[in-house]
Structures are given as structure tokens and as C-alpha cells.
Write a structure and sequence with these properties.
By secondary structure, the protein is α+β, with helices and mostly antiparallel strands. Helix content is about 50%, strand content about 15%. Helix 1 (about 10-25) packs antiparallel against helix 3, helix 8 (about 230-260) runs antiparallel to helix 11 and helix 10 packs antiparallel against helix 11 (about 355-365).
């Protein structure tokens, strides 16, 4: 449950809503410069939303899944790249609570800490006195350009060691950035590549993949909290849902805002607003979004209820949580595709949000943990009585 001293859900959603005009006004700049501008970063810091994922002992809110969904849905109405970065900071911040208190004291010394990273084990870690030397290259590090810390995952270099991935907390300042994020979607997420070259990581900033995926918190304080005993990927899937909903809601409102007075070119309809085709398109898109929102809220509610009862999560429930975000992404993307196809030729102008929203949502849907087809296949496999074909549950 959220910290007793935290702002309410409505207050946090309200804080997110205040950011929307700024995010919209900066969207073209964000795409052109492939990162968030400093005024947006400052406004996010001032909003207090970065505290949502911070443990209570460091002044954070420990916000519940439903609050994350609603807040990130609001941010998604402003800009997809900003929403994606905030979802990463929330998810990775939540993950970090599994590290020892000594590591957390370092991380949360910064009042507006932002943590990025990936869980792909594309590096190596060599044992040395007091810790490990980290080497490797990690791609798709969304939000890292504005982060102070990063989670890097590496395999032990010692051939005699158990081949269990090591999760390492590293200051971003100790990594090399390769500016290779040139994309047609989520340009402003700045999901560049990072490189480690013999970076020393002390023992207390390393946990094993077993600790990570079994939610074995090495923090004496956090280990006692049901909030951090929800499976990592269940929580992070719920957090990611909000940005998808927000993007779809923004697409619908943007389409409706442009509708009055626009003709349906090369037809007898002087107004697209009067055409039955438009009614069918808007109606179907709205229903898809409504269904996705209900699913996201039901999913978040399940997490809250099971956490309150301190119930364990079965394999079947973990699989079901994977399909939630996949199906929500599919519904939101389908809704936005309908609206984009109905937007007319003028919607491809850069100052019209619709196609940018479509590109950003398409990019988000390609995330390996979100991809609808992969998650639906996993769910169907489970329903057929087969074991999951992934460890990422």
C-alpha cells in the first residue's frame, strides 16, 4: 500500500496533468533532439512524481500499481517519449529496492534520482578484491541520458562460477554513452547504448539473478514490505500499461479536436463529423481504449489485493500478467491505427500529434516484454497445459 504520508492518487494524477501542456508544446523539440529538454526534466522533478517509486525510508511514496497506471496514463497524454522515460524510472526504481541498504543509501542520496537500465545480460563481470570489474555493451537504455544510476546485467567471467546473471548498480557517469538512437518512434526516450570498460562495482551493489527474479530483497528494511514481494515483472508490466493508455487517449482527443469543420475530401460530406464512417471509426477506437483501460485497472487491482493479503504468485498468474500488457498494447495500438487512418492527409504534418502518437505507440509495442503476439502465445501455451517457454515471469 502507498506510504501514509504520500499524496493521494488524485493528487499525483493532478500533478501529472499539470505537465501535459508543457510536454505537448515541447514534442517537436523532443523528437528533433532525441532526448527530453532541461525544462521538462526540471518540471518532472518539481512535480514530485519521481518519488512514486522511492522507498518510504528515503522520503518516497511507494505508490501502488493503480496509481502508476493512472499517473503514467496522464503523462502519456502529453508526450510518448516522456511517458516512456518515466515508466522506466518507475520500474527500475522499484527494482532497485531489492539491493542492500548500503547500496540504496548511495542511490537515494540524490533528491531526484533517476535509474535506468536493462535486464539483458550482455556484459561480463570478473571477480576482484571487494567486488567485480564490469565490461560489456548494453543497448536500449531508455532515459539514461537523464539518469544518475543504471542497472547493468552481466554473466560471471570465471568459467567455474555458476552461470547466474549478476545485476550491477553503476553510476551512469562511469559508463560511456554511444549516441546511436536514430529512430522513427520514441525518439525522445534517448535509448542509447552504454559501454562499461573495467568499471569497478563493489560487492554491495551486486545481486544475483536468483535474488532478482525470486524477489529476494537484500534490503533489511524493504524485505519486510509486501509491496516489494510482488514478482518484479508483474509490477513492471503494470507500470508500463499506463503510457499505452495515455497515448491512445491522446490520439482520440486529438482526432476529435480536429474534427469540426473538416470536410471529407472528394466526397459530398462537407464535414467529416457528419459522416457515418467517422462515427464507426471513432466508436470502435473508443471502445478499444475503454476495454484496455478496464483491463489495466483490473490488473492493477489484482496486484493491490494480492499484496494486501501477502499471497504468493503462481506460475499461471505470472503468465497471465505478461499477457495483460500485451493485450492492452494490442488494443491501444489498434485504436490509434484506426484514428490515424481516419486523420486525413493533413495529419501527417509535424505539428499534428496523431501520427507521432502512432509512431511512439508502435515503438513501445515492439518492446520485448510488451510485444502482443509473444505474450498471447505464452498465455495460450499455458492454457494448453505446457510449461512457459521463458524465464521472464
Amino acid at each position: 500500500m502507498p506510504s501514509a504520508t504520500a499524496p493521494t492518487r488524485d493528487e499525483l494524477v493532478g500533478a501529472a496533468a499539470k505537465l501535459v501542456p508543457l510536454l505537448r508544446s515541447r514534442s517537436v523539440w523532443i523528437d528533433e533532439h532525441r532526448r527530453l529538454p532541461q525544462d521538462v526534466v526540471a518540471a518532472i522533478e518539481e512535480s514530485g512524481l519521481l518519488k512514486m517509486q522511492v522507498p518510504a525510508q528515503y522520503g518516497g511514496y511507494e505508490s501502488d500499481a493503480r496509481t502508476f497506471v493512472d499517473v503514467l496514463a496522464e503523462i502519456g497524454k502529453g508526450n510518448g517519449s516522456a511517458a516512456f522515460c518515466l515508466s522506466v524510472y518507475a520500474a527500475l526504481g522499484w527494482m532497485t529496492a531489492l539491493w542492500p541498504d548500503e547500496a540504496l543509501d548511495e542511490v537515494y542520496a540524490h533528491p531526484h534520482v533517476r535509474i535506468s537500465g536493462t535486464t539483458a545480460a550482455t556484459g561480463t563481470a570478473r571477480r576482484t578484491d571487494g567486488g567485480y570489474l564490469l565490461n560489456g555493451t548494453w543497448r536500449f537504455n531508455s532515459g539514461v541520458l537523464h539518469s544518475q544510476w543504471k542497472i547493468n546485467v552481466a554473466l560471471p567471467e570465471d568459467p567455474s562460477a555458476d552461470p547466474v546473471p549478476l545485476f550491477c548498480l553503476v553510476p551512469v557517469s562511469e559508463l560511456r554513452i554511444e549516441d546511436d538512437w536514430h529512430t522513427v518512434g520514441l525518439q525522445g526516450s534517448g535509448s542509447v547504448t552504454t559501454v562499461a570498460e573495467d568499471v569497478f562495482v563493489p560487492e554491495h551493489r551486486v545481486i544475483t539473478g536468483i535474488d532478482f527474479y525470486q524477489n529476494i530483497s537484500r534490503s533489511r528494511v524493504n524485505a519486510a514490505k509486501p509491496h516489494y514481494r510482488v514478482p518484479v515483472l508483474v509490477t513492471t508490466n503494470a507500470i508500463q500499461c499506463g503510457q499505452l493508455l495515455g497515448a491512445a487517449r491522446y490520439a482520440l482527443s486529438s482526432f476529435l479536436d480536429r474534427l469540426p469543420g473538416r470536410p471529407l475530401t472528394y466526397t459530398h460530406y462537407a464535414s467529416q463529423q457528419a459522416a457515418p464512417l467517422t462515427h464507426l471509426q471513432v466508436g470502435e477506437a473508443a471502445l478499444l481504449i475503454e476495454d484496455a483501460e478496464l483491463r489495466a485497472h483490473r490488473f492493477a487491482g489484482l496486484i493491490g489485493a494480492k499484496s494486501a493479503r501477502e499471497e504468493p504468485w503462481s506460475t499461471e498468474e505470472r503468465v497471465a500478467s505478461r499477457v495483460q500488457i500485451g493485450w492492452i498494447a494490442r488494443q491501444c495500438k489498434a485504436a490509434v491505427d484506426i484514428l490515424a487512418s481516419a486523420g486525413g492527409g493533413s495529419s501527417i504534418h509535424r505539428d499534428v500529434p496523431l501520427v507521432r502518437i502512432q509512431r511512439d505507440l508502435h515503438a513501445a509495442s515492439l518492446h520485448a516484454m510488451i510485444t502482443p503476439a509473444v505474450n498471447v502465445e505464452l498465455y495460450g501455451r499455458s492454457l494448453c497445459g505446457l510449461e512457459p517457454n521463458t524465464d521472464y515471469l
